[in-house]
Amino acid sequence: MRDSQLWMLLLALVLSSSFLVATRGFQGDGSSFKTSVFMSPPFNLKPGSVGDKFYYDIPFPRGHIALKSFFAEVVDDNGNPVPLYETYLHHWGLFRYYGEEGAVDDAGSSKIIFIRNSGPCGNVGQYVGIGSETRKTDTWVPDPYGIEIGNPAEIPQGYQERWLLNVHAIDTRGVEDRLGCTECKCSLYNVTVDARGRPLDDGYVGGLHCCYDQTQCRVKGGFNGGARKLYLRYTMRWAEWIPSMIPVKIYIFDVTDTGDRPSPSNSANTQFGCKVEYTVPPCDSVGEANGKCLDVKRAKVVLPHGGDIVYGVAHQHTGGLGSAIFGEDGRPLCSSTPLYGNGEEPGNEAGYIVGMSTCYPKPGSVSIKDGELVTVVSNYSNAHMHTGVMGLFYILVAEPRPKLNTLLSQGLASPWFTELAGNWWVLALAGLIMIVVVAAVFRKRNESEGYERVNG
Ligand SMILES: *[C@@H]1O[C@H](CO)[C@@H](O)[C@H](O)[C@H]1NC(C)=O
Ligand SMILES: *[C@@H]1O[C@H](CO)[C@@H](O)[C@H](O)[C@H]1NC(C)=O
Questions:
Q1: Would you state the torsion angle of the CA atoms of residues 200, 203, 205, 209, taken in this order, to the nearest 10 degrees?
Q2: Most buried pick, 53, 147, 192, 343, via CB within 10 A?
Q3: Pocket test for ligand 2, best of 325, 379, 381, 392 (most atoms within 8 A of CB)
Q4: Chain segment 305-341, per-residue pLDDT in tens
Q5: Which residues belong to the signal peptide in this entry (predicted)?
Q6: pLDDT value for 270
Q7: Whole-angstrom Cα distance, residue 356 to residue 358?
Q8: Sign (positive or negative) of CA dihedral 96, 130, 301, 67
Q9: Domain range for residue 446?
Q10: Nearest of 34, 52, 13 to residue 171 by alpha carbon
């Protein structure tokens, strides 16, 4: 009788200490998350002008942390959000890198080491990065997952983890053709060479090679508008990294990916398999007659390491009708469709993509196998021709955690045990209470035995 009571007590103790550890780990109430708001350096844009800026070593949350969500928007000198029809946010991206400690200028340094996302495209390296849709797109990484950054064990000696911000914005106040300027139509930009001075390819009608930094889109005659100072205001939500969090890998797929990669012997070759942008040709007469002006683009990409999809979202430009990814057997993995604005206020600008729908599969319900061939599909309306459009798909993947047997053989390396070890005081307390209880029970037993003896 007393023995079973003792075991119940011990069981309750063990359960309650585990429960304490688990709830601390999951942080379900969100109370331990921090929010940091930063401003990029100012950039000046006048009507029709383009800014494509790269800011190294920007202000960013430091330390070993989990990134949980982000937000960004273009604001003016008074901090007021600027609508997309005045300043079109073509894209912005955050790139993670290690820079030398004490370095003054990372921009000119050959010593910096970029930490790319885990996706297959060498020229799409950002960790975080979207465009006009930022204001109404969910970016929250669900618990217990997080984008792990700043792990001191991974940062090389003499280096520091830093972030590079790229902002590409087009001022379309007073321009002749707003959509044309935002689609970087070469005919509106009066350029014949790209940003590096190389002549444009024959037949290149629009895209980033025509709207690089300091290019100028055609403005209506007689339009008067001054230059203005703008900023990207970006907000990061994050938490201190704790071992019970599960890190996710970032994969960015590109629907223009042909699978071709520069060979190591010819690494100067810039003809990557990922073109990032593409042209949507106008609908043919058959499509027009059927009222089906739809351009469907597909790519097949291999995911070397699989896992559970935790979050997914696509990136498309105006004209986009939705994008999806599928597994090798055709099962749907995630789809994401654009939200078009229908008003004037920032976040709801008519005709612009102001948000993208996202996927949050129930943890463990949607997974990709190691080496699985994933199909990316991007749909655009081709009722009009579009230039410089994108079809990116961004997913967060949690790789399977070690199984119990490997977990035991790895001993204290697993997050669970590390977390327990980090909470040594819980164990110590549990141990202490156990000792007290055991001692009390044994004393009681001795007393009662003595009592019985006296009476026996
Ligand atoms: C186009 O560029 C050329 C030189 O690159 C310049 O002479 C010409 O004035 C420009 N045209 C317009 C309309 O800006
Ligand atoms: C893309 O278009 C095809 C053909 O109409 C359609 O079956 C599919 O559902 C579309 N996908 C998305 C994500 O919109």
A1: -20
A2: 147
A3: 379
A4: 999 999 999 999 999 999 999 999 999 999 999 999 9
A5: 1-25
A6: 52
A7: 6
A8: positive
A9: 1-31+423-456
A10: 52
End-to-end CA distance of the chain: 20
429 and 402, same structural domain? no
Cis upstream peptide for 144 (omega within 30°)? yes
Distance from C-alpha of 113 to C-alpha of 243, rounded to nearest angstrom: 26
Angle at 196 between CA 191 and CA 197, to 5 degrees: 50
Does residue 251 carry a pLDDT above 60? yes
Answer yes or no: is pLDDT of 269 > 90: no
Q: How many domains does the chain have?
A: 2
Q: What integer pLDDT is reported at residue 418 of this predicted model?
A: 45
* Residue 85 per-residue DSSP state: T
- Interatomic CA distance for residues 389 and 319, integer angstroms: 9
- Arithmetic mean of pLDDT, 173-183: 97
Query: Does residue 296 line the site of ligand 2, with CB under 6 A?
Result: yes
Residues 89 and 198 in one domain: yes
DSSP 101: T
Q: Is the separation of the CB atoms in 180 and 189 below 8 Å?
A: no
* Closest ligand to Cα 187: 1
Domain-located, residue 415: no
> Ligand 2: which atom is nearest the Cα of residue 336?
13
CA 238 to CA 245: how far, in whole Å? 12
Distance CA(212)–CA(306), nearest Å, equals 36
The residue behind tokens 């520069």 is 262
Cα of 84 vs centre of ligand 1, distance in Å, is 27
Instruction: Determine, yes or no, domain membership for 306.
Output: yes
- Contact (CB, 8 A) for 304 and 366: no
- Both 337 and 289 in one domain: the answer is yes
Residue type at 121 in one-letter notation: C
- 294: Cβ below 6 Å to ligand 2? yes
Question: Residue 52: is its pLDDT beyond 80?
Answer: yes
